[in-house]
Amino acid sequence: MDDEPLAEWAERRDARIGQLRAVPLVTGDGPRASHLNPDAPRAIQRWNGHLWEAHGFAANLAEARRVLFPHAEAAATPEAPPKLGPGAGRHRKPPTP
């Protein structure tokens, strides 16, 4: 068994301190994946180095993503899709006779 040194493990664990995650609040053993229940409320949890503790609340997946990734919206700018130029590319439909 390959054991890593304790100092490396502690450094890896401490690097995650402050990390946030969103957990859907669904009842029972239902699906917990975010894409299956986009309108379900979310609990925002923060890693403190030992366990996930409550940090906040989000009404749905879109709001949870704004909390988890605040810089993603500023970087995402809608761009026009590239226009296809002339030519017979590999994936283009052949001209209809």
Describe this protein's structure.
This protein is α+β, with helices and mostly antiparallel strands and 97 residues long. The chain is 23% helix and 19% strand. It is built from three helices and three strands, in the order H-E-E-E-H-H. Strand 2 and strand 3 form a beta hairpin. The longest helix has 10 residues, at 6-15.
Secondary-structure map:
Layout: H1 6-15, E1 20-24, E2 42-47, E3 52-58, H2 61-68, H3 72-75
Antiparallel strand pairs: 1-2, 2-3
Mean pLDDT: 83
Q: What is the count of β-strands?
A: 3
Distance, first to last CA: 67 Å
Counting copies of identical and different chains, the oligomeric state is: single chain
* Count of alpha and pi helical runs: 3
InterPro entries: DUF6087
Pfam families: DUF6087
Protein name: DUF6087 family protein
Offer a quick outline of the entry.
The protein has 97 residues and is of the alpha+beta class. It has 3 helices and 3 strands; from the N terminus they run αβββαα.
Main features:
single chain, DUF6087 family protein
